[in-house]
Amino acid sequence: MNLLFDRGTIVLHDVPPDLDLTAIAGVHWDPRVNVWRAPGRLSYPLATALKRRGVQLANTPCPKLDPPSGFCTIGLRPYQQAAFAAWRLAGRRGLIALPTGSGKTRVALAAMAATATPALCLVPTRALLGQWINAIADVYPGPVGCLGDGERQLHPITVATFASAYRHMPLIGDRFGLLVVDEAHHFGQAQKDDALDMAIAPLRLGLSATPPSPGNAAQNLARMIGPTVFELNVNDLTGEFLAPLDRITMQLWLGPDEQRELDELTEIYRNAFHLFQVSHPQGRWEDFVNVAGHTDEGRRGVAAWRRTRRLLAYPRCKQRALAELLAQTRDRRTLVFVGDNETAYAVAREHLIMPLTCDIGRAERDSVLEQFRSGKLRALVSAQVLNEGLDVPDADVGIVVAGRMGEREHTQRVGRLLRPGEGKRAVVYELVVQRSNEVRQAAQRWSRLATRSRSAA
Amino acid sequence: MLPEADLPLRIIGNTAYFDFLGPQDEPWVQALLGEMQRFEGQRRRQLAERLAEPFSFNAPYFKRRAASRVLMRLWKPERIVGVRPTVLRQAVFVRAASQEDREQVLEDVALEFSLSRQSLAETLFGDLPGERIVRAPCPIPSAHEVVLRTNVAIAQAAVMRASTIDLSILGATRPIVRLAKLRGLLCVVKENRPGTHPVLEISGPFSLFRHTLIYGRALAELLPHLAWCARFTLNAQCSLRGRLCDVSIDNSAPIFPADAPIAFDSKLEARFAKDIAALALDWDLVREPEPLRADGTLIFPDFLLTHRIHKERRVFIELIGFWTPDYLAKKLARLRDSGITNMVLCLDEERVCNADELPPGLPIVKYRRRVDAAAVLKQVEQLV
User: Fold this and answer.
1) Which pLDDT tens digit goes with each residue over A239-296?
2) How far apart are CA B45 and CA A342, in angstroms?
């Protein structure tokens, strides 16, 4: 009998007539081409199940690329060693949850070196492609493949964006034996899960600073990558391995004209939302946005909400506060977090701070980070690029002008400042407009992070 | 492709119905085009913001959203000439890190690159998508064209959310199957009731396991090509607004077609089509009709003649021209396997093959350089 990889699936050929495949989970009869078929992910469990039934397998899918060799010795901190050991003990499958800045990439590199099987690293953004390639190149002498951001090279160690992996997995799903999934919490919500299901790789390592809470997403993630095998939070590592952090909330007030406009806009969208809630008592915000398009009130409501968001993104009080803070922290490495690219460019124009947005190309981004590292640039402003994974060296001041994604985004943003340094004490300034929904959002943001906090008016 | 939230469609029960744009929408599309032209030379971000706001003209909301997105794709960003913005950014921001006076920094950089302060400000982020200057396409599309382009975008956005599509098509089938296979999709002819058109099921290997959207883009790409089929009906289950809905699209959908497929594979076919069309006035000629299933694969007959009044009188015509012995043997084996009886085979006289190789019962017309249309028609009329 033969198991052959076919575009993200395993096709079973020459099945013995007396073999009952319906008893094996995940194997389906494909009436379109009259064969038995299973998702690529089940390749190895399927081979094991068949061997257990005494079936002779002439062909089974195995990673097509050559195994990588020549990794340098990778030194791990004690908690990284513990995480790696937990992953090995769990059958080299599972999710490791460590805070941002604690060196999850090192654990992944150790896994690649120890397993010595072709590995595919999946990363959420183009910005992270280059960072992972550089990190791998530091410990691995061979060429590193890249799939995404206009590049398409496959090597025994390859880094791919989620989007590219999703698109190309039917073709490359049988090349690798180890899948490393950075920011693995993006999976488990069905949207791009097929990419993980189409790969034959039996060894899987997920990395996240913000693993999903128990529920469907966590269950799906456990099915595709493995359960959470090791977890530490910021407080466990603060001091010795992560820089301590201070939080300063600046309470700001809109100007009278801005406040009046905000109140008027809020009134319009609240009325529209109230009307929606009457007809849809269980309706969520997303449902409101969908339904609102059908009526004039709804459309005005959504337009008003959009304007509210724009108004709060960078009102005069935030402009003044930001100018003051930037002047105060001029000699420190500062990251400014804003809600959207437009504000990022406005801040960049006003304060002559380099913006780091998704629009900035890879070469320029790498050069900017290098200049930030060397001290040629003192501050960066970003909307979302710095939200995840991107290793920003030595930043110790964060100014949160606005955010859109809530608690997870905030944890990731703050994590940029936690990379340890000698005598380093990071500080996060948060600009919060009073009498607006920012007050509630700011309170919610910190639920995952326990810090020393104080307020300033 | 359009986002799901922007699709003008109604879901009734388990069926989604498209609100395609029609001639009645052309006046507001024309007004929208006018609004777009007002932003000639402005930043893409400004145009996008304007399109998200309410308009003075009365246009159905979702239709307008869909048309706006289609137009945004047609309005291309201007090419950047002169100093590269990346170089300017490097100069401005690095200098600003060590020099506190903002005005002085801008003045120095403008001087260094021989730019005015205003053009420095304009060029600094001029290469970034939202900040780029937009230019209208030349020529500006008519309202009618925008309507058709929007409709195809709407239909494609729905089909993109399908895992499998069922196609009932007549004519120009082969390019569809060729394109589908090129995209790594599986095409099979589904068993159907006698007297009905065969149904082509197009899906991906992984569609067997769940409603995956991984083939959505490939499936949606087929849609504009279907417009060239003599008849088509596409049925699919699409994941829309959080549930699976039945979607049906046919020839009546006013969609913008893809570029025309190549009309004929050879001069021989082109000449034969012209001859038989002139001769068989009571018959309709369809090129590349529905595929036939044979030996686990598909056969694409070259032509189908259907009697205009007696629709049950249907005869496939296959022209076998230049071939290798191996190719001919395989082709004949497939025809034998298909069990088809209503087909006329036209064989090149120069290629000899044994009588036992030929599919039994099928009339043969031999030709030399040009197929005799009259002889074929005679065989057709004898056959059905």
Assistant:
1) 777 777 788 888 899 999 999 999 999 999 889 888 888 888 888 777 787 677 777 7
2) 8
- Reported confidence tier of residue B323, pLDDT bands at 50, 70, 90: low
Q: How far is B88 from chain A (nearest CA, A)?
A: 11
A182 has pLDDT over 50: yes
Interchain CB distance below 8 Å, B94 and A376 = yes
> For the domain with range A78-232, which CATH number is right: 3.30.230.70, 3.40.50.2300, 3.40.50.300, 3.30.365.10?
3.40.50.300
The closest alpha carbon to A448, from A124, A99, A189, belongs to A99
The string of pLDDT tens digits covering residues B270-298 is 899 999 999 999 999 988 887 777 766 77
Q: What is the CATH number of domain A245-254+315-456?
A: 3.40.50.300
Pairs across A and B, CB distance < 8 A: 102
Whether residue B33 contacts residue B137, with contact meaning beta carbons closer than 8 Å, is answered with no
3-class DSSP state of B234? strand
Whole-model pTM?
0.78
Please identify among residues 211-250 of chain A the ones whose CB lies closer than 8 Å to any CB of chain B: none
Percent of chain A clearing pLDDT 70 (strictly above): 94
Closest CA in chain B for residue A192: B214
**B236-250 confidence digits (pLDDT tens):** 999 998 889 999 999
Strand order in the sheet with B314-320: B283-287, B303-307, B314-320, B343-348, B364-367
What would be the CATH architecture of the domain defined by A2-52? Answer: 3-Layer(aba) Sandwich (3.40)
A13 touches chain B (CB under 8 A): no
Lowest mean pLDDT of A167-171, A369-373, A420-424, B126-130, name the range: A420-424
pLDDT single digits (tens) B3-53: 888 899 999 999 999 999 999 999 999 999 999 999 988 889 889 888 887
How many Å is the Cα radius of gyration of chain B?
A: 28
Q: Where are the domains positioned within chain A? A: 2-52, 78-232, 245-254+315-456, 256-313
The Cβ-side half-sphere exposure at A441, using a 13 Å CA radius, reads 22
